[in-house]
Predict the 3D structure of the following.
Amino acid sequence: MSIATTPSRAFDVEHVLAGLTLEEKASLLSGLDFWTTQPVGRDGVAVPGVMVTDGPHGLRKQAESPDHLGLGNSVPATCFPTAATLGSTWDPALLRRVGEALGRETRANDVAVLLGPGINIKRSPLNGRNFEYLSEDPVIAGKLGAALVAGIQSQGVGTSLKHFAANNQEADRMRVSADVDERTLREIYLAGFEHVVKQAQPWTVMCSYNKINDVYASQNHWLLTEVLRDEWGFEGLVMSDWGAVRDRVAAVAAGLDLEMPASGGRTDADVVTAVREGRLDEAVVDVAARRVLHLVARALPALDSAALDLTGPGTSAGYDADAHHALAREAAAAGTVLLKNDGIPAPLLPLASGDGVAVVGELARTPRYQGAGSSQVNPTRLDDALSALRAATGAEVPFAAGYTVDAPDLAAAAAQEEALRAEAVEVARTAGTVLVFLGLPASYESEGFDREHMDLPGGQIALLEAVAAVNPRIVVVLANGSAVSVAPWQHLAPAVVEGWLGGQAGGSGVVDVLLGAVNPAGRLAETLPLRLVDNPSHGNFPGELGHVRYGEGVLVGYRWYDARQAEVAYPFGHGLSYTTFAYDGVTAEVGDGPDGDPAVRVRATVTNTGERAGAEVVQVYVGDPVAQVLRPERELKAFAKVELAPGESRELTFDLTARDLSYWHPVLRRWVVEGGEFVVSVGASSRDLRGSATVVVDGEDVRLPLEGLSTVAEAMDHPVVGPRVHAMVHGGAVADDMLGMIGDMPLAVVADFGMGGLDRDRLAALLAEANA
Ligand code: BGC
């Protein structure tokens, strides 16, 4: 690695900073190459460069000839399940352990910062990079993201929380302006970042490529300084996404400390010139340079002690590749979602010995287990489901490929596809149960571009139809990085299992679920809509002429489908188990939180009413039926995954804070809890609510100052002057048939018309009294 000087244990940031020239400080603010920060080495000064490396679900350390899209030469590392799978675990404790393992590999490879996790919200199923993100919901993204960060950083290495912010598509990602109102940003797109920053203090945050309301994230002072640091208390360093900086001087001023990768010295010179010409305060350069030095100082203890070993799996000093593979398998199984499990007559899953299973689908033999782009890991080994099934059952499981994974729809491949299908039909015909592995080819979803539709390849659907025509006992097992349409074909399969992109042990993990070695407890962290056109971003994705309008506002994901009472294929939070759970005793009680804020304690008792041990994910949703602003029908605010033996019951307690009840007031520009009734629901999914309670919370009487443009209706509602305005209107001053019209009339207009005895002087007095 590119450490120009020997790292020293005694690295005094302030002392080093004081000894640097302006040019040296400016040089710290950009990379040396693709992956390393710039060192400074001369008499009396020794600042080592440190290495940062992708990515969210495994280490992609390019040991030689680094190029940021080149994927072939990264060192072997455990490919943990992608965020799509990890998000579906709903299990922060497990993600903490995955994080610890990621941190161990990072440290063992002498890397200072792992570039992840990615916690952007899945606004549309079409985002080509959804597999790198955890959820459509900020509570899931925040809680699971914080667990990953805490786990990774517990190993003495850093993380880079990305991509900050509103990077919810790949199309035009380096330029597009995400046009989003502030309330939506705060409640949906920033909330997960806020939670991770406050709970886990990532060493670094990576800004996104796109603009937010016309200002590049990399140059956005409001985002990088006012919100991230001043409001949330972020203490680390902000780095750019690779190539996200357009104007380096503006970016430094906005709070972007480190530009990555190298700029060949060009932008360092821009910074020096701007200081010399008085356009940039040197103190601002010092702040950014100090943060880079802090990062180096934080990284040095681990780098000093780590053994650098690139020799490969099983031999890497500092981590046990076998144990990490086992953990990857556990996580893959935990994130597998059992979507449906109908019976002929008994449920098809788990598979029983003697079921006479046959496997169809190339993806069972050639797994698709991660996505393409900067997160692509060179795995230490790779499990495929077919081999895992054969090994676990000891049976010679018949197999037919059924389709080719690449370019399955090309006319040239049509004849070949037909032959493959015919072969699969013969294998399926005599089988007891057929496992049909389907999914998206790599060419369908990747970093760098978006999907065009939500459908599986036509050749795969044709295979399913052909197989179903000869054998009704079908279990479909899916591999895809984000929602696919299931409505066109799922009637052909009594059981459907969503494995997402499960990492290097995804094949064995999903087999653990199919065989019942693991009782499925994965839950959807994103809605599976019936049709793409039902998705809230439809019509506003991916935008046009350089702008994407987030027209659905806060109604993202399930919030939208619930608001429209729209049918979905599978709702947010859904996932079946091989056992059953009963809920009772759902109660909610208002108390006092810290600083006298309102708080709500929710209780629910869950019982495993089936015959197998299993885990249930208990979900708490909150709705605020009456408010000044439109609020979603219900929003996830808390959840817990609980393991229960058959017959076992557990009472769970959830403490909701004022923030859990609040919304971002667009005019007051702060969080408010508007007093009144709140509905708290506890359930097994967003559409399988098992109990609810209503509480009355003594929140704020949110009131805006009365002004000339306030309406008559608003004035009538005012606690001080309201009765007088009321009397004025109803006291005969206004004809009855005018009452409906006048309610929406600004007071200033009423005064100008001289209605109700109001004139400009009287209005001024009225306003002064109201706002006193
Ligand atoms: C991606 C980042 C990644 C970086 C370095 C960028 O293109 O958006 O997520 O960390 O490259 O590979």
Summary: The CA atoms of residues 478 and 498 lie 5 Å apart. The pocket of beta-D-glucopyranose is lined by residues 54-55, 68, 115, 162, 241-242, 374 (CB under 6 Å). The first helix runs from residue 13 to 18.
